[in-house]
TrEMBL record, chains A, B:
Keywords of this entry: Aminoacyl-tRNA synthetase, ATP-binding, Cytoplasm, Ligase, Nucleotide-binding, Protein biosynthesis
Protein name: Histidine--tRNA ligase
InterPro entries: aa-tRNA-synth_II, aa-tRNA-synth_II/BPL/LPL, Anticodon-bd, Anticodon-bd_dom_sf, His-tRNA-ligase, HisRS-like_core, HisRS/HisZ, HisRS_anticodon
Molecular function terms, GO-annotated: histidine-tRNA ligase activity
Family (UniProt): Belongs to the class-II aminoacyl-tRNA synthetase family.
Organism expressing this protein natively: Lysobacter yangpyeongensis
Main location: cytoplasm
CDD domains with a match to the protein in the record: HisRS-like_core, HisRS_anticodon
SUPFAM superfamilies assigned to the protein according to its UniProt record, in alphabetical order: Class II aaRS ABD-related (SSF52954), Class II aaRS and biotin synthetases (SSF55681)
Record's catalysed reaction(s): tRNA(His) + L-histidine + ATP = L-histidyl-tRNA(His) + AMP + diphosphate + H(+)
Chain ranges of the Aminoacyl-transfer RNA synthetases class-II family profile domain: 22-376
């Protein structure tokens, strides 16, 4: 006998949680499609040579390699540097780059794609860290160029997704890498790598406190003046409180150098269009401390946080990059995109008790069975319900009605259809609404209409998120 | 520069095909849920020790093993028999067995689950063979016992799925392993393994012809009498032509031995309930040649074929088994289930030119842009459409209107919304319906209603498959 268990670092769910997870995936997909993004799926295995274009780096050390039974032990048979030929994707960005470069002449640019698949990282085993997790990405890829206007659609998508996910108030925080670069250059931090190091120190503000960060920036390797440090500290604390305030914060930066002016102009255009699309100003803000991956993003950058749960960190991040696929094609492919790490988000929401509605089944109706002789009748009623679009389960083995009700209750099935002797004789059905704790008997041919009315009322009560 | 390419044996699709594929996944999932099956997803990686419970076998030789960078080269560090600790699932049945055994006390039985994920097999590279492919499975698992009545729901699910997939006439072919066993025992083929070998030979009827098969069954290792061979040949040719004929074919088998009687009684009950659920009799038939995996299935077995494309083979197969998870638990867990190998089916349908509607985008409306100054107006109109539930793309960089129309046409986007100087001045929009080659100008606030009417008309024309 082998002990049934999953490997460490994966999230496997029981059906009620899986239903909740699937609903989140559906909401994300529906909203990605709403904004005109097209579906793409790529194989989980990529050629190692194609996947591992960058040398070194944290990610590369966490790659999972794949070998078929036949290839095992034949290390000499492996690809470059003795690595196995195949590896599991560790994100959806490298596969996107490969996909766009490979199919460049078959795609229409700007190319908008969404991709929602699992990725793999050999992370250190740790609570809340996953070795297999869903990423839900959108990107718009231009050929040669891509207007900054596309950067304005991204917050609109984020807003649509998280409004419908209904997990509480959220703020889409925006910044611009050019603006940052311009600002830091003006403070005498001209070197890109040094900027990165300064930002990394500044990022420790919350954890280590202001004194620690000031000391570090004044010390060896940085040697910044007190004045510069003051400026930097003031800069990274900027958060806008409204649309008008965001514009005012940009104005307050003054003329500055070229990079700063470019960044300000870009953010200004993005902000105006975000408003034109209809994103409420309470849902977006400037935040000059946001940098994201410094070697990758070049313009607008986004992070999204839950207002009441800042400790969860960013639940949706991304930005603008210069060139997606320089390892695979000479074409210049700038893009802008975001990613939602759904496995981690789901885990965090569950930990925080924020997963409402997880107890509602995908099954909407349970047709009970009181006598084996009634089964054909039960099946026929269930077929009516299914044809009308209701997800319906039939109790296939007759048993005590009480047990059948208990099952429906535990499973989160809303409508229980009772077909007893009387009902069958009279051509009626008895419906018990488990949620409203209501019960009524109607003609069989009225059943579908009655359940539709009940559901419509429930949806009306719930508001638009039906 | 690295050549961007996928590994051999995977199917990667361009967006129009991916949309068609996704629609098939959606149809399958919707119908699985319609019958009360609950979603389950399992990790792609399982512990090798858990996954590879059977020794030897074709499948085991095709397993992909997984190792993180750190584990590479540390063969001594590996699991039992020197194999790496992790492996990719090669089907959804073993993970189901592990899942049910692991979560036995948290699940309600009979447990109905559906699972639609990719599986991995190190197949020989060959056209139409995939190393990564989707399986879409349903199973009902009982604890200790599971009534044969559940076997009757399976054809109803198959019928619902393939009716909505709308890929042509199909027949669900049914048989019963007990009936087969009883029949073969009566022919003097009492040994289970020998039955399997006879069936394997009979399975070559189409490919090698009757003479070849007769000769083999009379020859060494089988030594069957001419009479027995006649009986077997007649038996495996049985196909029913209607519900009544199916029952008559069962009657025609006579009293027989106990196994035969049991098999006949089960099939009879299944047939009656399949009819009660409302599956049209043209969609199911008896086929006594169908055996499926002989060491696994013990009762009802199913195969589904496209009437006009028999060469595609079975597009949905499965059956009843005695015990799902004997490697992981002492509990007896009988079940019944089916699997659709969607990647292969999609590939075959595409090869046969049967993928209708693949040119219809997920994007329903394209809002064009004639002048950069109009963009905020365009975005606002698009937001109206999205709020009303239309998947809408906005042309973000103004260009020639002709090019924008051409893009919509190629992309399969049905409605093109034109917002020119006149429209903006008059508060109107011009809608071009690319499918009906129709064009009309209406007030902006009438836009959502007008598109709804157009879509409703299209759906009414298409029938229920909207």
């Amino acid at each position: 006998m082998i002990k049934p268990r999953t490997p460490p670092g994966v999230m496997e769910l029981l059906p009620p949680d899986q239903i909740a997870f699937q609903r989140m995936l559906d909401v994300i997909r529906r909203n990605y499609e709403r904004f005109g993004f097209l579906p793409v799926e790529t194989p989980v295995m990529e050629l190692s040579e194609v996947l591992l274009t960058k040398s070194g780096g944290e990610t590369e050390r966490q790659v999972y390699f794949v070998q078929s039974t036949g290839a095992l032990g034949k290390a000499a048979d492996a690809g470059q540097e003795g690595l196995p030929e195949l590896a599991l994707r560790f994100d959806l960005t490298v596969p996107l780059a490969r996909y766009v470069a490979e199919h460049e002449h078959e795609l229409a640019f700007p190319f908008r794609r969404y991709q929602m698949q699992r990725v793999y990282r050999g992370e250190r085993a740790q609570r809340g860290r996953f070795r297999e997790f869903y990423q839900c990405d959108i990107d718009v890829i231009g050929k040669d160029s891509l207007s900054v206007r596309f950067d304005a659609e991204i917050p609109a998508v984020i807003h649509a997704v998280f409004s419908e996910l209904d997990i509480g108030a959220f703020t889409i925080q925006m910044n611009n890498r050019k603006l940052m670069r311009g600002f830091f250059e003006a403070q005498g931090v001209a070197d890109g790598e040094l900027q990165a190091l300064v930002l990394r120190e500044v990022d420790k503000l919350d954890k280590r406190g202001e004194d620690y960060v000031r000391e570090t920036l004044a010390g060896e390797g940085f040697g910044l003046s007190a004045e510069s440090i003051d400026s930097i500290m003031a800069f990274v604390k900027v958060r806008s409180t409204s649309h008008a305030d965001a514009l005012a914060q940009l104005d307050a930066l003054g003329e500055g150098n070229e990079a700063l002016r470019e960044g300000v102009a870009e953010l200004r255009e993005v902000l105006e269009l975000v408003r034109a699309i209809g994103v409420p100003e309470s849902n977006y803000a400037l935040n000059f401390s946001i940098a994201r991956g410094l070697d990758y993003y070049t313009g607008t950058v986004y992070e999204t946080t839950l207002d009441d749960y800042p400790q969860i960190g960013s639940i949706c991040s991304g930005g603008r990059y210069e060139n997606l696929a320089s390892h695979y094609t000479k074409s210049k492919l700038p893009g802008v995109g975001i990613s939602i790490g759904l496995t981690r988000l789901f885990w965090q929401l569950r930990e925080a008790g924020l997963l409402a509605g997880a107890s509602v089944s995908t099954v909407q109706a349970l047709v009970t069975q009181m006598d084996a002789a009634h089964l054909p009748h039960c099946l026929s009623v269930a077929s009516d319900l299914r044809r009308a679009g209701f997800n319906t389960e039939v109790v296939m083995e007759a048993g005590k009605l009480g047990r059948q009700f208990k099952y429906a209750d535990r499973a989160g099935i809303r409508f229980v259809i009772v077909l007893g002797e009387d009902e069958i004789a009279n051509g009626t059905v008895t419906v018990k609404d488990m949620r409203r704790e209501d019960q009524f008997t109607i003609n069989r041919h009225e059943l579908v209409g009655a359940l539709r009315v009940e559901l419509a009322q429930a949806e009306a009560l719930q508001g638009k998120h039906a």
